[in-house]
Amino acid sequence: MKSIVVSMIVAAGLMTAGSAMAVDMPAVALKNKCNTCHKVDMKLVGPAWKDVAAKYKGVAGAEATLSAKVKKGGANVWGTMPMPPNPTVSDADMKELIGFVLGLAK
Ligand code: HEC
What we know:
With about 110 residues, this protein is an all-alpha fold.
């Protein structure tokens, strides 16, 4: 009984914080180790993917821009911390990854 009350309080707290269900990293992100630096809804080494999605929402060509950026790496969009190149990500995986990231925009 006590644990039910506690979990209800925790759930209510999460809801008031505005974070609905946390979205997990997809398998393709774990496979390509994006999760070492990124989380969906929190800044880690790199920006939260939710924030990336919001930034590029409605931006023409965002998919191509971001695919190239992830492949070649780079810095100065979110801060001076660079993202190292990720040349081993296959084209199919990249499409899925960027699709996932941009799909987070609401
Ligand atoms: C070693 C850490 C690290 C890894 C691994 C990493 N990233 Fe990043 N990522 C960063 C950093 C740091 C930035 C911010 C770069 C900037 O400010 O320009 C970033 C930025 C991004 C952006 C936004 C780019 C922009 O120009 O706005 C996307 C999209 C992204 N990463 C996707 C990925 C994907 C997909 C993977 C896995 C294949 C990945 N990242 C792996 C550190 C990392």
